[in-house]
Design brief:
single chain, 264 residues, alpha/beta, Arc Repressor Mutant, subunit A, 2 domains, 3-stranded parallel β-sheet, 3-stranded antiparallel β-sheet, elongated
Length: 264
Amino acid sequence: DTGAITADQDLFSLCTTHKQIDEATAAMTSYHEALNNVITAPTMTFEDKNGPSYPLDLHANIVLTTNSQHPVKIDKDDRRWVAVRCSDAHMQDMEYHGTARRYFGEIEKPRTKLQLRVLRGLYQGFMSRRLDHIHSFPLQRPKTDFYRECTMVHAPLMVKFLSFLTRDITRFAAPGTSSSSADHQQQRSWGSCELFQRCREWAECSGHSFGYTSTSFGIELSSLAKKPDTGIVKKRLSSGCEYHIDLCLLEAFLRGSGAYDVHA
C-alpha cells in the first residue's frame, strides 16, 4: 500500500510500505523520536478499541516532500535519512509534472489500462522484494552534501562559531594583522571578551539566535579548552582570560569528531 498523509496526522498509522508526508514543515522536528522509531523498529504494537494489544511487522518507508529547508532533525551519524535538495529546473513546468498524473490519475477516477499496468508493475516489484534487508539498509544510504548540512542544523552555536573561525582567518585576525600574514598565521590569541563580542556579531550576521551571556560563553569555551587536541589553551592574566587557539588543530578536532560545519 502507498499513500500520502499530512504532517499533523498520527505518525503511528504508517502500516504501509511507503508513506509520503507532503508539505512537511520545521514543526516535524517535534516528532523526532517518533519518526526514528517508525523508521527503525522491526515491529509496532497496536491495540483495537476495547481489545488486546498485538505486534505487527513494520516495513514503512517515509518520504518527505517540502519547501522547508530542514523539516526533520538529523543527528550526527544518523543513517535513517537520505537528504536530497531537489532542482527547481522544472518549477511550474506543468507538462513535466503532468506525466506522473497521466500515469497514475486521480484516486477517485477510473484508471486506464496503461495506468493499471504501471501500478501493477510497481506493486509486484515492491511485493517481490525480500524484506530481510530493510533494517540494514540505512548503512547503504548515501551521505549527500545536503545530508551533511542537515546534520549541522541543530549543532551547538559554539561549534558553528568555531568552525567559522577556522575558515575566516583574515576577518578574525588579531588587530593589526595584515591579510598576507593572516593566511600563514595559524595560531591566534584573543581575550575572552573579544571572542564573546565576535561570536555575537557573527551570530547576528548569520541569523542565529544568540543565547549566550559572557559567563555562559566563557564556561562552554573553557570546557573545550580542557579537552585534549582541541588546539585551545586558556590562560589567566591579570586583565582577564586569554585564549590561544591553533586553528589547524581546532579544525582537525572538529572534523575528527564529525562536528565541523562547512556551512557556518
